[in-house]
Amino acid sequence: MSNTEHQTQAQDRSADLKAAPAGPVQAKPAVSPSIIALAGGIVAAGAIAAFLLMGGGEMAGTAERPALNLVKTSEIDKAAETLAPEEKEKLVTQAKACTAPLGNMRLSKMTANAGGVVRIRAGNYLSPAFNVAEGPINIAVPFPAPYEVGRGEIVVEGAAKDVFFELTPGLKIDTTGGVQRIPVIWNTSKPCGG
């Protein structure tokens, strides 16, 4: 065979190889739809849990839902003086054991003619009556819902006018027309009061 014939045969074989269909292509295995659904469910559950643990996602109080602050561990004994006598021992024990911290608020008059007598309801707890007169009054209460929930409602009862209810942020309360309900949040990351 001549050189030309060899080149022609080599070219023919090369053309046949190029024209021949390639063997079966190995496809990458697809991710199962059930695995995708499972992963999505895990991510969604984690997001919901984080939302609930952070008090519904609210980290700072607003005018519509102010924050109830914690009584610091070092101030529990002093704060206990404002608790209802029949609940005091149990609430102080729980706060010191870091199982159920106490919330803190302050009441004060906004004008010379303001003031009155109020009681604070937080969940099943009802505070003693407080006379908002001259100086501000610091009041401790249990949280109105389980601490881990991060949100609840404080109810102010009594007969008071133009009283500043110091939460974060604070607000004016007037119970001369009936009770005043205040939805509140709190930071759930410090169960011992910081």
Describe the structure.
There is one protein chain. The protein has helices at 3-19, 33-53, 76-79, 85-96, and strands at residues 69-70, 102-109, 115-122, 125-126, 130-132, 137-142, 151-161, 163-166, 171-173, 180-185. It has 194 residues and is an alpha+beta fold.
Name the average pLDDT: 80
Separate helix tally: 4
Q: Strand tally, please?
A: 10
| Most strands sheet | 5 strands, antiparallel
Proportion of strand residues: 25-35%
The end-to-end distance, rounded to whole angstroms, is: 96 Å
Question: Topology of this structure?
Answer:
Elements (H helix, E strand, L loop, with lengths): L2 H17 L13 H21 L15 E2 L5 H4 L5 H12 L5 E8 L5 E8 L2 E2 L3 E3 L4 E6 L8 E11 L1 E4 L4 E3 L6 E6 L9
Antiparallel strand pairs: 1-2, 2-6, 2-8, 3-4, 3-5, 3-7, 7-10, 8-9
Keyphrases for this structure?
194 residues; alpha+beta; five-stranded antiparallel β-sheet; 4 helices; 27% strand
In brief, what are we looking at here?
The protein is α+β, with helices and mostly antiparallel strands and 194 residues long.
